[in-house]
Amino acid sequence: MSALMAAVEQGREAERKTLPGPILLLGAPGVGKGTQAKELVKLWGIPQISTGDLLRANVADGTTLGRTAKEIIGRGELVPDVLVNEMVAARLLEPDAVRGYILDGFPRTLVQACWLDARLAAQVGALPVVAVSIQVNYNQLLRRITGRRICPVCQSIYNIYVNPTKKEGFCDVEGAELIQRDDDTEEVFKERMRAYAALTSPVVEHYRDQGRFAEVDGDRPIEVIAAEIVAAVERLRLQG
Prior knowledge:
By secondary structure, the chain is an alpha/beta fold. The protein has helices spanning 3-17, 33-44, 51-61, 64-74, 81-92, 110-121, 138-146, 186-209, 222-239, and strands spanning 21-26, 48-50, 100-104, 130-135, 148-150, 157-159, 213-217. A hairpin with a 6-residue loop joins strand 5 and strand 6.
């Protein structure tokens, strides 16, 4: 059996044994958190809970929380933690979240992490959050972000370093000239990295101190990373 197949099988075996519970995926911009979240959703059959999606859904549905958030956004202000927390709390009570869920974009700060821990501790039978950080070398991340090019017609995504087009600068499908998003520049990337580190470092240390934190190498094939995350969750749950 190849190393790849062995890693995938290890992940499947762990998945069969583990009740996943709440899982927080951490990682700098460009590490592939969204891709891995989708893989884990397929593996475990649990939802991905995104605070951005929750906010948009509450606003669109005209809930009490959504109407309040809409007023705040309309004034050009940031939606406060207390309102985001209430949306998350309501979502975690839905039936599809009983076995677990993938947290996306929350908790983003130490205050949010402590709130969520307290909330789960007060919920009978609820497992605590385990956090898994996807690690990719800074220079590799920089190439992923600054090398990204997008077709304005079909939205196909290329990378001039690792996935270039056949004709430089033009989409293989539509033939349209590719574009680089304004936020895919080195300057913006560096600022996003600084902001991520400042916000997330306390969250990482919070879960590390409690023995609920693991790191996986994110510079490998998607299915291998997914298997490593599953194995890390299994290990953390057993330790807990």
